[in-house]
């Protein structure tokens, strides 16, 4: 848990917390930007077109993140009826969040490999930042409601399958809780993240 990290190594705790806040802020701002570009001004009217963490952090989600190791940001609201292609565009808006985290992880990793960085502290910050962004991306790509992956799948499925897929929405939160309690979440996400880290930061 992040709180334990603060107690054992305050510097590492600050680095991890800053990385998480940055990753969540960019993730949610990307949802907002995509929604506005696709025709809905709701996120702009709600002040979500910003990287200011105060606009994107959920108080309860942040507290749970620090003390329980799992949390969430404030979901970006948008009106699908303002979109030209509501189902497809909703999927694109959902994909924008995890895609932004993947882009950030790749860019920072590439820059770190190009620059002659000798500082252990900076390299540690880079490793935490890349890893946290990858975890956030992979986690949100899981096709389970309320995660982004569920909406992405809904956006790409043929129309005759969408209704059946949407019927599984009601079970999403229960599946997510079971994955977290049993540790299955870690067994699914960690191998993907570890493989990506080996490729980006050998």
Automatic annotation (TrEMBL):
Its cofactor is Zn(2+). InterPro entries: Metallopeptidase_M50B, Peptidase_M50, Rip2-like. Residues 122-179 form the Peptidase M50 domain. GO terms for cellular component: plasma membrane. GO terms for molecular function: metal ion binding; metallopeptidase activity. The chain crosses the membrane at residues 12-36, 93-112, 119-142, 171-189. It is a multi-pass membrane protein. Its main location: membrane. The keyword Cell cycle does not apply. The keyword Transmembrane helix applies. GO terms for biological process: proteolysis. It is found in: Cell membrane. Keywords: Cell membrane, Hydrolase, Membrane, Metal-binding, Metalloprotease, Protease, Transmembrane, Transmembrane helix, Zinc. Belongs to the peptidase M50B family. This is Peptidase M50 domain-containing protein.
């Amino acid at each position: 848990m992040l709180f334990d990290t603060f107690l054992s190594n305050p510097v590492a705790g600050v680095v991890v917390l800053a990385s998480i806040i940055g990753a969540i802020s960019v993730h949610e701002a990307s949802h907002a930007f995509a929604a506005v570009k696709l025709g809905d001004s709701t996120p702009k009217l709600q002040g979500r077109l910003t990287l200011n963490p105060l606009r994107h952090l959920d108080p309860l989600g942040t507290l749970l993140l620090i003390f329980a190791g799992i949390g969430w940001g404030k979901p970006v609201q948008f009106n699908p009826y303002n979109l030209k292609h509501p189902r497809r565009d909703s999927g694109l808006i959902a994909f924008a969040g995890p895609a932004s985290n993947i882009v950030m992880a790749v860019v920072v990793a590439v820059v770190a490999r190009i620059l002659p960085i000798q500082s252990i502290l900076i390299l540690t910050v880079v490793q935490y930042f890349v890893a946290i962004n990858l975890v956030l991306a992979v986690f949100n790509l899981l096709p389970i409601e309320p995660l982004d992956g569920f909406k992405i799948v809904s956006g790409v499925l043929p129309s005759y399958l969408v209704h059946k897929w949407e019927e599984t929405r009601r079970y999403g939160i229960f599946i997510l809780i079971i994955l977290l309690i049993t540790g299955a979440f870690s067994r699914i996400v960690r191998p993907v993240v570890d493989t990506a880290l080996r490729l980006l930061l050998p």
